[in-house]
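Why do we care about 3D structure at all? Because function follows from shape, and shape follows, mostly, from sequence. That is the central idea of this module. The next example makes it concrete: a single protein chain, its amino acid sequence, and then its structure expressed as tokens.
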Amino acid sequence: MQRIAITGGVAEGKTTVLRIFESLGAQAISSDQLAATLLVPGTEVWEQLIREFGQAIIAADGALARERLATLAFGDAAVRRRLNRIMHPAVVQELQARLSEREPSPTPIFVEVPLLIEVALQGVFDAVVVVQATPALQRQRLMARGLSLPRARQILRAQLPTRCKTVFADWVIRTHGSLEQVEAQARRIWRTLTQQVYSVAQRNSVSGVKIGQEYRE
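And the structure:
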């Protein structure tokens, strides 16, 4: 089973690209969704965050006030490092557990990992897709989500520029065009991956190995 990471910066279209691949037939995992499961009240990570940052990050309904925590983290590099020391290992552990649970399959699995390069997780994957938009478009998208321009700039300054991530990319999908253009880029990658699987299956069939056997062994 080929493991393909999708990474990039905030508001660059990673989730959109993940869903496109899923619609083409890929298996899909979102690290953001995994992180959300770890932040449910009563979980070990939730309790660690409360011990580290206090009751100020708890909303009135008892849930984690994620926006409040994000404001603290993006406003202070030291707070961000403390948050990352808790979240990164937990997300990586959960991701690896989810991957190990998957049944061997010839169908590629795409995993959205926003901080793939920052936590040096690229070695876990067979290939990397970097999703990239222009900084101006990132700001525009963040502001469309209700953030102020200063806050949008603050978030972007706190992140590793995506141009630094493209060095690690097997493919780059640029999302500053139309959705149709983004889909066309994804389809080209999908064809390449599925043709590789088909070619391997053909070679194995010719050599007397049953198709799919290599994925089970």
